[in-house]
Amino acid sequence: MDMSFILAAENAVSGNIGTVGYGLAALGPGIGVGIIFGMGVQAMARQPELVNVIRTNMLLGFAVVEALALIGFVVPFVHS
Fold first, then answer.
1. Measured between alpha carbons, how far is 28 from 7 in angstroms, rounded to an integer?
2. pLDDT above 80 for 60
3. Torsion over CA: 40, 45, 50, 52 (sign)
4. How far is CA 44 from CA 52, 55, 56, in A?
5. How many beta carbons lie within 10 A of that of residue 9, not counting itself?
6. Quick check: 59 pLDDT over 60?
7. How far apart are CA 78 and CA 70, in angstroms?
8. Domain coordinates in residue numbering, the chain
């Protein structure tokens, strides 16, 4: 068996697992933002007189979801 192949296989996986953790942590907020704005646009189309209220609630929800994304970004670096 060729030893260079074995050494290359051992070095194939390298780096910080925090990058994988952040990638997984970004999935939830990404889906959440899509749902928030998608449903917000539908709500504005159904109730045009409540556009300001709906927009305010959308932005508050967006801020909470993005805060979770930032927490997911920071935790892997703090933990290691």
1. 37
2. yes
3. positive
4. 9, 8, 12
5. 9
6. yes
7. 12
8. 37-80
As a whole number of angstroms, the distance between CA 77 and CA 32 comes to 23
57 band by pLDDT with thresholds 50, 70 and 90: very high
Q: What is the pLDDT of residues 5-41, one digit of tens each?
A: 555 555 555 556 767 777 777 788 889 999 999 999 9
Residue with tokens 């030893």: 3
Question: What tokens were used for 75?
Answer: 């935790």
Q: Which tokens belong to 59?
A: 């932005």
pTM of the model: 0.68
Between CA 39 and CA 28 the distance in angstroms is 16
Closest CA to 70 of 14, 31, 29: 29
pLDDT number for residue 25: 75
Cα atoms found within 13 Å of the Cα of residue 15, Cβ hemisphere only: 8
